[in-house]
Amino acid sequence: MKREIKNKTFDGERALYGSVDVIVKNCTFAGPADGESALKESKNIDVIDCCFSLRYPLWHVKNFTVLNCKMDGLTRAALWYCKNGAIGESELFGIKALRECKNIAVSLSKINSEEFGWKCKNIAVTDSQITSQYFMFESSNIIISNIKMDGKYSFQYVKNLTVDNSHLDTKDAFWHSKNVTVKNCTVKGEYLGWYSENLTLINCKIIGTQPLCYCKNLKLINCTMEDCDLAFEYSSVKADVKGHITSVKNPKSGKIIADSIGEIIKDGSVKKCICKIKDRQQ
């Protein structure tokens, strides 16, 4: 049976260090002592209805729940090296909130955290709002569903990712990614997906200049493209686009078909380009 710690304020260094089998409820981690690492090295803990305003509160924590908690901008690097956790209905507003963690589920939360989710494995983020730079950098085995994302350079160097029913407003997304599937999403931003491998977009709306260049085994299925000029340069691609593409430039191989294409550019290439391009209106 878990021991309860309720209605207390902690500001000291390692205030609840190494806690095991506890419920921490309605507590505040803030104060003049400005201590760090409040719950470091804890196991089997539930943190509920708590407020954090101190650095590094949950490091090396295993088997945990964080529910309806608020971590403000002073809560730097909140969760590092953690395993087997769930974060729900919470606010994570400190920089670098999740780093090198495994088996973590985030739901119904608001995240405003630069460098969130770096080098993590087995991560799920659902029904949440995200503001971040380099979101999920170098992470793998990721499930994203029903999020609203705002921030540059998301999903760079990720592996084994699925994104569904989401709105991504993000520049330079999916660079150097491998084995990524994006379904039923709006993806807005410049230079989408460069240098990716096995990137598949299904029923997506793609918005922005120079998308999907230098890709390997790129697939677009029933997608639309808006303000997409100079698309697909040096990519191996199979694309069936509904509607108009502003321009296509020197795709390397495969086949591109769209209802209309404003301009097909086949000059100035430094690579052999044999991709078949079909404009349905011609």
List the helices and strands and how they pair.
Blueprint: E1 3-6, E2 9-10, E3 20-25, E4 28-29, E5 43-48, E6 51-52, E7 58-59, E8 62-67, E9 70-71, E10 79-80, E11 83-88, E12 91-92, E13 98-99, E14 102-107, E15 110-112, E16 121-131, E17 140-150, E18 159-164, E19 167-169, E20 178-183, E21 186-188, E22 197-202, E23 205-207, E24 218-226, E25 236-249, E26 253-265, E27 276-279
Parallel strand pairs: 1-3, 2-4, 3-5, 4-6, 5-8, 6-9, 7-10, 8-11, 9-12, 10-13, 11-14, 12-15, 14-16, 15-16, 16-17, 17-18, 17-19, 18-20, 19-21, 20-22, 21-23, 22-24, 23-24, 24-25, 25-26, 26-27
How does this model look, in words?
It is a single chain. This protein has 282 residues and is mainly β. It is 0% helix and 50% strand. The protein has no helices and 27 strands. It has an eight-stranded parallel barrel. Strands 7-10-13 form a three-stranded parallel beta sheet, with no helix packed on it. The chain is elongated. The mean pLDDT is 97.
Task: Give a quick rundown of the structure.
The chain has 282 residues and is mainly β. Helix content is 0%, strand content 50%. It has an 8-stranded parallel β-barrel. The protein has a 3-stranded parallel β-sheet with strand order 7-10-13, with no helix packed on it.
What is the gyration radius calculated from CA atoms? 22 Å
Provide mean pLDDT, rounded: 97
Give the strand line-up of the largest sheet.
17-18-20-22-24-23-21-19
Tally of separate helices: 0
- Provide the helix percentage: under 10%
Shape: elongated
Q: What structural category arises from helix and sheet content? A: mainly beta
Main sheet overview: 8 strands, parallel, barrel
Helices and strands, in N-to-C order? EEEEEEEEEEEEEEEEEEEEEEEEEEE
- First-residue to last-residue Cα separation: 72 Å
| Low-pLDDT ranges | none
Beta strand count: 27
Fraction of residues in β-strands = over 45%
